[in-house]
Structures are given as C-alpha cells and as structure tokens.
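User: Show me sequence and structure for the first protein, then do the same for the second.

Assistant: Starting with the first protein.
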Amino acid sequence: MADILRFRDDEAHEEPAVTLDAFLDQSNATAVRLEDGEDARKLIPYLERLALIEIGFSNFGDGRGYSAARILREHGYTGELRAQGDVLVDQIAFMRRCGFDSLAPEKPLDPVDAENALARWDEVYQKAADDRQPIWAKRHA
C-alpha cells in the first residue's frame, strides 16, 4: 500500500482496522474497515468511540464508499475517515466533499497533483458533508 495522504492536523491513527463483523463481535476496537456494500449505518451507535473508519474501494467506479462516508459524517462522525484501495487523483475533490480526510491509494499519488485536485474548483453547486457553501446559497443570502 502507498503512503497515506492526510488532510487533518491531528496524529494518524496507527491501530489496524478490523472488519465490520469482527468489530460488531468484539466492539472494543477503535478502528474499523467497511468493504464494498457493507452498511455504514451499523456503526452509528459506536461513532463516538471510533478513531478511524476505513472505507475500501475495490474498484474506482464503485460509488458506494462515497455514500457510506456521507452517512457517517451526517450522523456526527468526527474521527478520521480514510478511503483505501483503488483511489484516483480525479476522485480526490469529490471524496473530500463527502467527508474523507485521508487516502490510502493502492498506487502512489503525486502530492502536488493531489493538492491541485483539491484546489481546482473555487465554488460548489450542492451541499455535501464538508462546510463549503453552495454558490446558490451565496447568491440568495
């Protein structure tokens, strides 16, 4: 696995993530991994004690991880949310808007390309899990 790109100021979580089933069975871990298609809502009762939720992307074209991230953020998760797997530089801005704050891509991403991807659009058109105000709200404020 390539280096982890983080967009947070706090320390990286070092504990390995356990599977969702293992977490639900033992429920003393502070890091969990969701695979494609697993229901993020199962973690809602435990969000306050989780330091890391890793969401697997086995295929860049599978958008379920974006939905899982947004569900978790909308339910108040404030810990590290990491996209892991088939993560491409073209997806970074959208992942960030859905609430991801770290990436662990299978193939290394150029940090300069990553920063450029995050800075590409000054304005956004819809609300998301981040705190950016949509342009329509600015127009009608």
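Switching to the second protein now.
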Amino acid sequence: MLIIKKIPRLTYLLLLLVVFGFLAILYQSQIAKIQEKIHAIEKHQEHIDASLREKPLLKVEDLILIYNRVPKTGSTSFVGVAYDLCKKNKFHVLHVNISANSHTITLDNQLKFVQNVTNWNSMKPALYHGHFAFIDFSKFGAPKPLFINLIRRPLDRFISYYYFLRYGDNFRPYLVRKKHGNTMTFDECVMQQVPECDPNNMWLQIPFFCGHAANCRKPGNKWALNEAKKNLITNYFLVGVTEELEDFVQILEQSLPGIFEGATDHFRRSNKSHLRRTVQKDAPKNATLEKIRSSQVWQMENEFYEFALEQFHFVKKIFSKNKGQVVMYEKIRPKPA
C-alpha cells in the first residue's frame, strides 16, 4: 500500500520560494537580454547615422531641384513662393530662359546645361525653373537632380491659354498679349475650326514629361504617353496638380525642409495662389466640350493627367496615414566595429 506523506508547511514554503526565485532570475535574465538587444540596435543606429552624416548621398547644401514648368499650370504662383523664401532658407532660384520660347533644347545646349547645373557649386543648393522638356541627366553621365512639376486638367489649361493670349493676366495687366484685340470666343474658334483651337495643340503636358525624343513631339503618339508616365514615376521626385497646389507645397516642405521650410504658411498668407489669373475667360458650351473630348489627343492628355492625379493622391495618402513615421535599420551583419 502506497503511503503519501504530507509535506511539512515550512518545506512547502521553502519550495515555493525556490521556484519563485528561479522564475525571478529567469525573468531578470530575459529582461537583461532584451535590454542588450535594444542597446545594440541603438548603437548600430547611431553608427549608421554617424556614417550617413560623414558621407551623405544627398546633402542639403548640394541639393539641385529642376522644375521644368508647364505653361498655364500655376507655375508662377509656386515659383513666387520659392523666390520669397530663397534668401531666408539659403538656396538659389534660377530661371532658365530659352530663346524663341522653345520647349526643346539642342543637344549641345543640353550637355552645357547638365554640366552647368552639376558643377556650378556656388549656386548650390538651387532650384532651376523654365519651360522646357524633361532632360535625362544620366544620358550625359551626370548624377540626377530632383525633378518636380505641376500639371493641370488639359482642357482647362488649353482654354486658359487661349484667353490669356487675348486678355493677359493679373500678374502683368499692362502687357499687350499676342492676340490682343481678338475677341473671338473659344466656342467660335472651335466651331469654325480655326487652327489655333485644333485639339492637337493640347499636346503639351505629355511632351514635357516625355523628353527630347522625336516621338514625344508627335500628337497622339502612344509611346510618348507611356514614356511620360514612366518618367513621372521613375524620374520625378514629386508631381502635383494645379487644382491642389497648396498640398503640393505642403508635401515639398515636409519632404525637403532644408529648402521649403515655411513654404506652406507663406503660400497661405501671401495669397500666392491668386497669381497670374487670366483676366477674362468665357465658359465653353457643352457642344464645344464634346467636340474637344472626342479627339484622341484630349483623351491621351486626360489619361496622363488622371495618372498623375492618382499618383499624387497616393503620395498624399501615405503622408496623412504615416505622420511621425520612423525608419530604423536592424539585424545588420557583420556587426559594425
């Protein structure tokens, strides 16, 4: 017969103390290991931060931004903010003026421009702006600058430019424009099939992003549209839309504070959004809109605009959802000395 002896109370308490003591030691040991890992991660992070500070890829003082601005997209308003802030934020703003208002640059001048932008150290950091098509710096063996841009709904931009040539804008109200005195409405121009209102003339935003290839200049060219989309995603730091200009300024300030610190507040306080508004614009009739929208060029330019808009909204969404986001590096092997 098995006889179970009752464990004395004192012995039982001693066993409990031993078990709890063992668990406490194990717990402390695990805490110590976790603290060691945290310390190691922090140390690695400090080492990486120090390495990046010693030899950063993109130093603020060497930053180059290129804004190949599309006409009648609100570019004057944005550039006005940059000119107002450049002295305070210690960067330079340079206007690239091309003779005969050409949007394409000869090959030799492209090379000179790339060389100047890359090597003109006394002008760094800098924002270059002008009405010219995208230039691939890597084609000339140079490091790529950060390209930025704004685009606008193609028909709105087309109509605005039409009336701008007749009535000017509030930026320089006394300057006589090319079509001054011509009071033909946009509706009349389209219905009478005046060459100025040919939908092919809307082929502008795609070429600006496509670049200097021959196909970029061909209205309705599918390759040009795809190339413009590819460049927007791979070669542009940020592309905003005229209709959401303040958001564009805000994201640039958050992303590049060394250049655009205070830009959002300045944009709001200084009413920069009201610069260069066309003095007179008549709303087009539905028949005119239908005629324009039936053209292949409008459809492709609008497809590009919608593509850019979707990408910009995606960037905005990431910013709004991830405020205060921190990126760290861990599990680095071999461990830094």
